[in-house]
């Protein structure tokens, strides 16, 4: 059974549906009830058990209560995919809105760490288990005007490296996937709903799709138990680094 956060859209939704296609039972978490219901319905069409839980991963009480319920029900969670996250704002540090920083750090770092801590006992109770942290190329290649987002994803990298050492000797594998440009709602969220500006980010090149990232995650999950894909930097062919891309002329 897999627990997926941020499952109502983008990489989270694509990964949930790919897991359902492979026969995995699902526990899905997201903020938007209507979008989550659509994902749950789509997963169930694959004939698997799927439950949706409407909550904001920044809500410590709600997250704790959810995991307590799953524990009491003895749900066999053997995959946790910490996908919920966002970028907010595109400003030099001196001009940034601290509220954007707070939202990114609370979601991308603290909520991910909390969910990991709460679910780890369930994972360690399984014969084999997988923990997937959805990072970003920004976590290993910081860039200007995205300092706080880059810092939040670098924190995911450091957290995962430390945790990997703590898990040594257990049957819990941990993957940090680091996508480059992915055509999802990411840029629209970053630009506070400015859809034309968001579309311009991907003009002149073919970015990754959410399904591409889901495919890479599920490939890693299906390796033999003695094989651990610790990290994966996944980029469009037209992207060399976080900031260097080749665009087709208009």
Furnish the topology, listing elements before pairings.
Blueprint: E1 2-5, H1 10-21, E2 26-30, H2 33-44, E3 50-54, H3 60-72, E4 79-82, H4 98-124, E5 129-134, H5 147-166, E6 172-179, H6 186-190, H7 195-201, H8 210-221, E7 231-234
Parallel strand pairs: 1-2, 1-4, 2-3, 4-5, 5-6, 6-7
What does this protein structure show overall?
This protein is 43% helix and 14% strand. The protein is α/β, with parallel strands linked by helices. It has one domain: NAD(P)-binding Rossmann-like Domain (Rossmann fold), CATH 3.40.50. Strands 3-2-1-4-5-6-7 form a seven-stranded parallel beta sheet, with helices on both faces. α3 packs parallel to α4. The longest helix has 27 residues. The radius of gyration is 18 Å and the shape is globular. The N and C termini lie far apart (46 Å). The mean pLDDT is 97.
**Would you tell me the overall average pLDDT?**
97
What is the chain-wise order of helices and strands?
A: EHEHEHEHEHEHHHE
Helix content: 40-55%
Instruction: Write out the CATH superfamily name.
Output: NAD(P)-binding Rossmann-like Domain
- Biggest β-sheet: count, sense, barrel? 7 strands, parallel
Write the CATH architecture name: 3-Layer(aba) Sandwich
State the name of the first-level CATH class.
Alpha Beta
Rg over CA atoms, rounded to whole Å, is: 18 Å
């Amino acid at each position: 059974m897999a627990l997926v956060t941020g499952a109502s859209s983008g990489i989270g939704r694509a990964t949930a549906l790919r897991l359902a296609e492979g026969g995995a039972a699902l526990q899905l978490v997201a903020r938007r009830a209507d979008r989550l219901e659509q994902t749950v319905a789509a997963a169930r069409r694959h004939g698997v058990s799927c439950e949706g839980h409407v909550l904001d991963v920044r809500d410590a009480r709600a997250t704790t209560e959810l995991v307590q319920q799953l524990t009491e029900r003895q749900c066999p969670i053997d995959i946790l995919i910490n996908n919920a996250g966002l970028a907010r704002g595109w400003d030099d540090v001196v001009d940034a809105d601290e509220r954007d920083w707070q939202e990114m750090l609370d979601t991308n770092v603290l909520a991910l760490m909390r969910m990991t801590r709460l679910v780890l006992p369930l994972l360690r109770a399984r014969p084999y288990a997988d923990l997937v942290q959805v990072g970003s190329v920004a976590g290993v290649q910081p860039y200007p005007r995205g300092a706080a987002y880059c810092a939040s994803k670098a924190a995911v990298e450091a957290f995962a490296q430390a945790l990997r050492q703590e898990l040594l000797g257990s049957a819990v594998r941990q993957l940090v996937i680091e996508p480059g440009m992915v055509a999802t709602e990411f840029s629209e969220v970053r630009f506070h709903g400015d859809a034309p500006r968001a579309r311009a980010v991907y003009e002149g090149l073919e970015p990754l799709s959410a399904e591409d990232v889901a495919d890479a995650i599920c490939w890693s999950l299906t390796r033999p138990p003695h094989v651990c894909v610790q990290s994966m930097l996944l980029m469009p062919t037209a992207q060399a680094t976080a900031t260097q891309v080749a665009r087709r002329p208009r």
